[in-house]
Amino acid sequence: MMEYARVLAPALALAALASGCADESAPPASPRLVVEGWFDSGSYPEVLLNLSMVPSQEEGSVAESIVRWGVVAISDGEREVILTGGPSEKYFPPYHYYTFDMLGEPGKTYTLRATYRGMTVTSAVTMPAPTPIDRLEATPVEGNDTLRHLTLRFTAPDDTPAYYHLTARAHSRDGREYPCMIGAQEVTRPGSEVSLPVYRGNRSTAPGESYEADFPEGETVTVTLARVSREVFLFWRAFDNASLVNGSVFVGAPGSLPSNITGGYGVWSPQGASTATIRLE
User: Fold this and answer.
1) What is the DSSP string of 46-83?
2) Residue 230: other Cβ atoms inside 10 A
């Protein structure tokens, strides 16, 4: 997500080197594995796997960070599947690991293990149950006839605290869902009616287009409400906070990002996912 979307790995790759960048006399950090993985309930797992990049003036460092020959496995405690790696223009760098041999089931604990050139990273997360979306509403933006503001509404589950991460896709411009600005939210009151604003990710813009938090009239938008573990929530909350303060999370304060990946960097998120789609009139 150097494009602030489900392309997190290359940006995290740069983020991992922040402390080294602060001291030019320090030796380059050794590359480590960087993971971005997600597994929606009722869907299939997908993983981006890259190497952290040592800062240099040499061209091609991003391409060289792509891990094309890694072994990525996911276990549900009963069986293990090996993911297939392949090119995909939906992501940058354009390579990801996937499988259609395991469907996400809430309540199961999914363990990710990735290995490459003697490096191994692991992470285990129990997939929360999804929270149904009550409605997705669009309202005019005051002073602007061409934009619509989105609000997502749901009822908090009984087993609070509950943690959420919002993503959205504007169909005419996005090939995938992008994390929403201020999209990491904690809910603590069981049974309460929750209203969350849906803001576009600050990289979800066309070339040369200025950033607008709201969505354009005429657009079709899909929003996913993902219930996540507390560790995943803490990652996305730190990502949000650093992005708002610094403009670029990975240039300003990358060393402070938490991670639930043992042996490397990034995030692994089996999540209970609910989606809603709206046409903005």
Assistant:
1) EEEEEE-----S-TTHHHHHB-SS-EEEEE-SS-EEEP
2) 13
Span 84-141, pLDDT tens digits: 999 988 877 789 999 999 999 999 999 999 999 999 999 999 999 999 999 999 999 9
| Residue 133 three-state SS | coil
Map 196-245 to HEC letters. Answer: EEEECCCCCCCCCCCCCCCEECCCEEEEEEEEECHHHHHHHHHHHHHHHH
What span, in angstroms and rounded, lies between the C-alpha atoms of 89 and 86? 10
Write down how long the chain is: 281
Q: Are 100 and 44 in contact (CB under 8 A)?
A: yes
Beta pairing, strands 178-187 & 193-198: unpaired
Q: How far apart are CA 171 and CA 193, in angstroms?
A: 28
Strands, E, within 101-143: which ranges?
109-116, 119-126, 135-141
Q: What is the pLDDT of residues 14-54, one digit of tens each?
A: 444 333 333 444 445 678 899 999 999 999 999 999 988 65
Rounded Cα–Cα distance for residues 35 and 30 (Å): 16
Residues 243-257: pLDDT tens digits?
765 544 333 334 457
- Do 229 and 112 contact (CB within 8 A), yes or no? no
Q: What percent of the chain has pLDDT over 70?
A: 78
SS3 sequence, 9-52?
HHHHHHHCCHHHHHCCCCCCCCCCEEEEEEEEECCCEEEEEEEC
Q: Quote the pTM value.
A: 0.84
Report residue 270 as tokens: 């089996």
SS3 159: coil
